[in-house]
Amino acid sequence: MPRFIRSFVTIVLIFCIAGIIPAAYPQSGTKDGEWRSYGGDLGYTRYAPLDQINASNFNNLQVAWRFKTDIFGPRPEYQYEGTPLMVKGRLYVTAGSRRAVVCLDAATGELIWMHSENEGVRGQNAPRQFSGHGVAYWTDGKD
User: How does pLDDT run across 59-90, given as a tens digit for each residue?
Assistant: First the structure.
């Protein structure tokens, strides 16, 4: 068998094995209901193995709280799209046309803190002027 064909077959086998092996590992989703990264976990499973809501109580669900974002920036954002993170009972999410980052109590919706940068002319001329889709969370394991 010519060398270039063996190299091609080897590369194809590597890609096939790489595609099969990750699928063989079970994906467990988030831990303790926390959503620490954009897709829920580093595997981007977007899955939380929770059982608080089920078929018997689904019809009884009610809105627990609402959080208005129209005070975060010079104009309201009418198509707000955010992907919050939830860590230790706190939600972290972007809000408003100045892309503020807010921290909320997950149980009550109470604002705990907010951080915003006044980007001046750069922010006014940015092609994407609204809240954005996400934030990131990092810890060194101690703090």
Answer: 999 999 999 888 887 777 777 777 889 999 99
Which option is the CATH number for 63-143: 3.55.50, 2.40.10, 2.60.40, 2.30.30?
2.40.10
User: In the block, which residue shows the tokens 């503020």?
Assistant: 100
pTM, rounded to two decimals? 0.71
Name the segment(s) of the chain with CATH classification 2.40.10: 63-143
Q: For the sheet containing 90-95, what is the strand order? A: 85-87, 90-95, 100-105, 111-115
Check residue 127 and report its DSSP letter: S
Distance set, CA 81 to CA 6, 38, 75, 126, 132 (Å):
49, 13, 15, 18, 7
- Residues 91, 92, 95, 101, CA torsion sign: positive
Residue 137 three-state SS? coil
DSSP string, 99-116: TEEEEEETTT--EEEEE-
